[in-house]
Amino acid sequence: SSKIRNMEVQSADGITVLEDCIGFSSTKTISRIEEKLKKGGLPDCPDDDIIPSVGNEMGAEAQIRFLKAKLRVTQEDLANVVFECRKKDDENQNLETRLKDTEEENTRLQHTISMQQSRTEKYKVLSQEANKKSERLQQEVIALEKVLQ
């Protein structure tokens, strides 16, 4: 992800070229391939599916144009993937922020619940004491009424 974020888009000979922070350049790679083609130094690879079988009948210039077109399509695909990765990274950042906020809210609510439970226990004790006192006072009232009669 950090490598993708460090990529810069440049334009060379009408081809979009992505360069990463290491210094890779597809224009340099293309130049090296062109030099090897001119020298006849590229080995024939029957398993190579970059250039279809009719590519053997194509001239060097046509092969270069074909490879440049293929490169352009691949770079567009890469740019789309990079865009999607950045979009997903942004979405992940937003979700992480929301998660952090939710966790903080959860912690705050847990603290509030704890305080409310302790208050509830306190009021239960006070209520029980008040009920006991009320019962004693009622018994005193009954005793006093008997005394008065």
TrEMBL record:
Keywords: Coiled coil. It comes from the Eukaryota. The keyword Coiled coil applies. Residues 85-147 form a coiled coil. This is TEX9 protein. It comes from Grallaria varia. The gene is Tex9.
